[in-house]
Amino acid sequence: MRETTLAAATGAPLFIQVYNEDQEASRAELRRGLTARVPHIAPKFLYDALGSRLFDAITELPEYYPTRTEAAILDAHAEAIAAAIGGVGSVGSLVDLGAASCAKGLRLIRLLRPQRYVAVDISVEFLRAGLTQVQREHPQLQVTGVGLDFSAALNLPPACVQGRAAYFYAGSSIGNFTPADAVPFLAGVRAQAKAGGLLIGVDLVKAEELLVPAYDDALGVTAAFNLNLLLHLNRLLGSDFAVRDWRHVALFNREHSRIEMHLEARRTLTLHWDGGERKFAQGERLHTENSYKYSIDRFDALLRDAGFASTKCWTDSNRWFAVFWASG
Fold first, then answer.
1. What's the rounded Cα separation, in Å, for the pair 68 and 70?
2. What domains does the chain contain, in order, with CATH numbers?
């Protein structure tokens, strides 16, 4: 279903739902993951309504440094970043990928003063409050929310992006892609950005004592975020996961330079769903998310493999996190 309230006529955001979940395709994907030799679930399934709110809470935790560190970089290097992008007023469209509450997008709107702001997330319903706030603060800005699963394909409605475009992908969400999958995704952004470019946040490799607590906090919010996946799967698949039978596990895989999140069976059990089942031994894990960590040089090379000819990079004083502008 496509919702087309005219922003220009009403002074309200325009909402376009491009992605409509194919429930049978989702169930088939989940069954394949659960019956694979190494059971796994794509991280997009972490983000139901409750999962999205839990992730927002994670970004406020003292252990979770990426959000505040990225924000500090954008604030500390605001003038240099704006100049690299082309200066205030040089951007026709600011396209915020995985916009969530739009809080990060607001920072760039204030910095770049684009003509239009396009917030992209898997569902416009989660964008509504954030986009309303954006429109309230910037009543003359053309504001559009697009419901799109861009992890599959970045196919934005052509009318959404006009003029020179700056794409923004914050929070090191690129880390959810394997490096091999990141290259075609980044190449797709480059193809759409044309004369513009991509501003992207990247988490850098650092000591495990800093990395692991960011994904296994003392309050257990990340554990709740991961365990909530089981309730989402029960609704989607008709499975009989019991949250008490599983525990959250986060670890750093040094060989692959990535944080891994898993759910580990507390006891031997058999999981059932309509038409299938899987036995889990005590201690067996269901792999739910990866978050790859990069060196500056390695990520710069990834951008160039994707076809970007020019890159600039800014970091915090600890070199925990980096923000890249890639163009050309």
1. 5
2. 7-21+68-206+295-327 (3.40.50.150), 38-53+208-292 (no CATH)
